[in-house]
Design brief:
The complex is a heterodimer of chains A (369) and B (527). Chain A is α/β, with parallel strands linked by helices and 369 residues long. Chain A is built from 18 helices and seven strands. In chain A, a hairpin with a 2-residue loop joins strand 4 and strand 5. In chain B, helix 12 packs across helix 15 and helix 15 runs antiparallel to helix 16. Chain B is globular and about 85 Å long. Classes of the chains: A alpha/beta (369), B mainly alpha (527). At the A-B interface, helix 1 and helix 9 of A face helix 1 and helix 22 of B.
């Protein structure tokens, strides 16, 4: 016993540290959207047939309801702001444990494909920290062991709110019935900028004016011709392999961003390299940045910001057209000219005219003009 | 695989468990496997350069050893037949042969370092000249810098020079030499080990001792405390100010340099703490690299406390051989004759300048590093030349050398001089460093000091508070160490509850107060 004492002390010490971290998590880590989403994926009786993967653009642009109605499937958006391509892989894996998924639609936001992804860093560990399956958690640790900061393994350190008001709000939420019942009201969603509609979709509210955040266009311009990163390509290849293994159809799309950013940051370059990559993977790719203005009539004012977060009525129009496209693809009646301009040059030459003709509205609104 | 990722600790745990399970005889082989695996986690592309250096010094070592053995045999064989002159001539010939081998080996290993690290620096300067003369540009080579190349090259060089000096016999097993060159904890940022102290420990299979694990972990956590709480946080401010220095006034530039003094010390010494802690868990004691450097009373003292293993390397292999060489001896005599007391010190001054030129070049391929080195060298040389004058001035001013006030003055003076050197070390270029210095003096105003402006640089109020608390903790620990108190020993003597409470506070403070934004690796890992 005496020989074991030092080791028992170490075990007790580790246990105390783990308990302390759990206590701090409860006290300081606010309950966010991912907890709610994970519950939908793993615990509820959803049985999702079709999932959308992507980041904030996905969550604000794709309303899965029209897709569910058109294709007669249970469609759900797993788009999470900040979700890297690698995060999408683990989310798919987690979703597959509890759902009989037949189609995965990956919504590619170029930013996550050209900026190196360090999914193991403290500030980017939000998907890992909410994964339910120990097996997938271990796989995450194994695959990210060379980049994952050790603190993220045991706690939710990145999301701590240590202000007194934050702690008060957090505790009152965690004691609430909404939190305990995994209701959306039991999760903080400050970045949604609109009400939760359902199926993983938030309807972003718009001001009606030109969007803010012009800095984005300026900042992104500097790196808009970067090549796709190996980490993003590798992560997508894993999603593809997983889908192939399970006999799941994988389709890639890109939700359209605002026309100004699209042109200024040369989305054609991103389109070309993403298109080439998805083609090399044997995955069909539909870039709605090229969508006909007669099909998806969009102007800058339909976005919450110049980064391209869609909002308002356009989300319904776009989601309906996405549903139509997916239906056409499924039925083998897909015709590109029905949805897309023949080229970016063609689009830039005609989009304003087409928009105004289709909607009867002015292309520019307010001071942004 | 940096020291703050989970993979490193899984790797370490498995490494330690297996190390103590397998037979003692082969434990060094396991260390070699771990070391090469560790290198592989960063890159495999440049491992051949590590192997090349290993093979060169292995072969060179054997050659030097063979010359020693054959010459001893020849002397023995001809003991009765050779006269004194013949023996002397033979010894001189042997020494020349050994010197030839040593120089060849050093040229080869430093050649690799020079080509990989400095080719583009030379080409950039050639291009600058060509541009002025309106000629075409030479394309840069853009070699991938191998992990820890400056560290393992210097360590390898010490092996060869020590062999030349007959400090020990050459290692016959190439894999053991490979372990000496690549031992994983020190591969990234030193300390620069010496074969006679490090190798026997590496090759000996150590007995398991829980105290080694406990002490090792203590040291690792202390290193992480410094790195994650202080260095990573200060880096945010430092990077912003040094990158966009033109946007900030003198006050911010000075604050940026002070922040860099925190960052660099916490980063480098923190990293070394982790290295030493990891080695200790295998029962290996590594050379210390820091001794409260910010308590230094002169630049010379600073370099005896900061990056100690580099300092001693320079002293043993450059300073003494150069200053005690025949040429310098002659210069000293000539100087004494023609210039008096100042002239006598000329060899020392030149040796100081040479040492710090090499220190500057070692730090990186850029003019700012060369100026950084020369700045230190000039101060050292000037100080040794002026030492008698200073003494006279002190006497005239009735300053007592052992007074507390004088001691504090010396520390503050040295701290300021060191901080001036950080402008060159961290500045994005030589011209940027000079501009920052100019701004620090000419564009300084206390009116720039307002909370709103300070918090706009990248750190919040809570970050400054955490930095302050962290600095106070490090300061207290440094004062205790400076007074000769061995903290870990005295902690071990404390009651169990106190001891574990300290561990708990240390671990939880890293978890809670460690910076959570985007972090960088260790600064010296880039060398």
């Amino acid at each position: 016993m005496k020989r074991c004492a030092p080791y028992l002390r170490i075990v007790a010490f580790v246990a105390i540290v783990v308990l302390s971290v759990s206590g701090l998590d409860y006290l300081l880590a606010p309950s966010g959207y991912i907890r709610y989403l994970m519950h939908q994926v793993t615990e509820s009786d959803q049985n999702m047939d079709l999932i959308f993967l992507g980041a904030s653009h996905t969550r604000s642009a794709i309303n899965p309801q029209p897709v569910a109605d058109k294709l007669n499937v249970n469609a759900y958006s797993l788009g999470i702001p900040g979700e890297t391509v690698l995060d999408s892989y683990y989310l798919t894996e987690q979703a597959l444990e509890h759902n009989d998924i037949k189609t995965v639609v990956y919504d590619a936001d170029f930013q996550y494909w050209i900026i190196p992804q360090m999914s193991g860093q403290v500030y980017q560990s939000f998907v890992y920290s909410q994964l339910q399956s120990p097996k997938i958690k271990l796989e995450y640790i194994k695959n990210n062991r060379n980049t994952m900061e050790f603190r993220t393994v045991i706690g939710h350190r990145s999301s701590y709110d240590m202000s007194l008001s934050g702690i008060k709000q957090n505790l009152s939420m965690k004691k609430s019935a909404e939190y305990k019942n995994y209701s959306i009201d039991g999760a903080l969603t400050p970045d949604a900028n609109g009400p939760y509609v359902g199926r993983g979709f938030f309807l972003r509210e718009l001001s009606g004016n030109e969007p803010g955040g012009k800095d984005f266009v300026v900042q992104t311009y500097a790196q808009c011709h970067e090549p796709l990163t190996d980490s993003a390509k590798d992560a997508f290849a894993r999603i593809k392999a997983l889908c192939d293994e399970k006999g799941i159809e994988l389709i890639a799309v890109t939700s359209p961003i605002d026309p100004t950013a699209c042109e200024v940051i040369d989305m054609q370059f991103q389109h070309d390299q993403l298109n080439a990559f998805f083609e090399s993977q044997g995955v069909k790719y539909y870039d709605f940045n090229m969508a006909l203005e007669t099909v998806v009539p969009r102007r800058d004012a339909d976005y919450g910001d110049y980064e391209g977060h869609m909002g308002g009525e356009l989300t319904t129009i776009y989601s309906t057209q996405l549903a139509n496209l997916l239906s056409d693809v499924k039925n083998g009646t897909y015709d590109a000219s029905k949805y897309f301009y023949s080229s970016f040059a063609d689009m830039y030459a005609n989009m304003q005219k087409d928009y105004e003709k289709t909607t009867g509205l002015s292309w520019h609104v307010g001071e942004g003009a | 695989m940096s020291f703050n990722v989970i993979g490193f600790y899984i790797f370490l745990a498995l490494g330690i468990v297996l190390y103590y399970i397998i037979p003692k005889k082969v434990r060094w082989v396991w260390l070699l496997v771990l070391s090469y695996y560790y290198y592989y986690t960063y890159t495999i592309k440049t491992v051949w350069l590590l192997m090349a250096t290993t093979l060169i010094i292995y072969g060179g070592g054997l050659l030097l050893d063979r010359i020693n053995v054959t010459s001893e045999a020849a002397l023995k064989e001809n003991k009765g037949t050779w006269d004194r002159e013949q023996k002397k001539a033979f010894k001189a010939k042997t020494k020349r042969r050994k010197k030839g081998v040593m120089v060849t080996i050093l040229v080869l290993i430093f050649g690799i370092l020079a080509v990989i690290k400095y080719t583009d620096f030379v080409l950039e300067n050639v291009n600058a000249v060509l541009l002025k003369t309106g000629q075409g540009q030479v394309p840069l080579m853009k070699f991938i810098l191998p992990l820890g190349i400056s560290f393992y090259t210097f360590q390898s060089a010490s092996y060869i020079i020590d062999l030349y000096n007959d400090k020990f016999r050459a290692e016959k097993n190439p894999f053991k030499v490979a372990l000496f060159v690549s031992f994983f904890p020190q591969l990234l940022q030193g300390p620069i080990g010496r074969f006679d102290r490090l190798a026997p420990q590496l090759f000996e299979g150590h007995d398991y001792d829980l105290r080694n694990i406990e002490f090792g972990l203590q040291r690792i956590f202390w290193g992480l405390f410094k790195k994650m709480i202080l260095a990573d946080r200060a880096a945010v401010y430092v990077n912003e100010v040094f990158t966009n220095y033109a946007n900030y006034g003198g006050f911010f530039n000075i604050l940026g340099v002070l922040m860099y003094s925190i960052q660099l010390y916490a980063d480098f010494s923190g990293g070394i703490d982790v290295v030493i802690g990891v080695a200790q868990m295998f029962g290996i004691t590594m050379d210390e690299n820091f001794k409260q450097p910010y308590f230094s009373t002169s630049i010379g003292d600073f370099w005896r406390r900061w990056h100690i293993t580099l300092g001693t390397w320079m002293k043993d292999y450059i300073f003494y051989p150069f200053s005690l060489s025949k040429g310098m001896n002659k210069l000293g005599k000539w100087g004494k004759k023609h210039l008096g007391r100042f002239g006598k010190g000329l060899p020392i001054c030149l040796a100081d300048l040479l040492v710090f030129l090499v220190v500057g070049i070692w730090h990186g391929a850029a003019w700012k590093y060369i100026i950084y080195g020369m700045y230190n060298g000039v101060i050292m040389a000037f100080s040794s030349l002026m030492a008698p004058v200073y003494e006279k001035q002190k006497e005239a001013l009735h300053i007592k050398s052992d007074s507390k006030g004088w001691h504090v003055f010396q520390i503050v003076r040295t701290f300021i001089l060191v901080n001036i050197s950080w402008y060159f070390d961290m500045g994005t270029s030589l011209s940027a460093a000079l501009s920052m210095m100019k701004s620090s003096i000419l564009d300084f105003s206390f009116s720039q000091f307002n909370q709103e402006a300070i918090y706009a640089v990248g750190l919040e109020k809570k970050d400054f508070i955490i930095l302050l608390i962290g600095c106070v903790v490090v300061f207290i620990v440094s004062v205790l160490k400076e007074k000769g108190i061995e903290i870990r020993k005295s902690l071990a003597e404390k009651p169990l509850v106190v001891r574990w409470a300290v561990y708990y506070l240390l671990v939880m403070s890293i978890y809670m107060l460690g910076y959570t934004g985007v972090t960088q690796g260790f600064i010296y890992a880039n060398f």
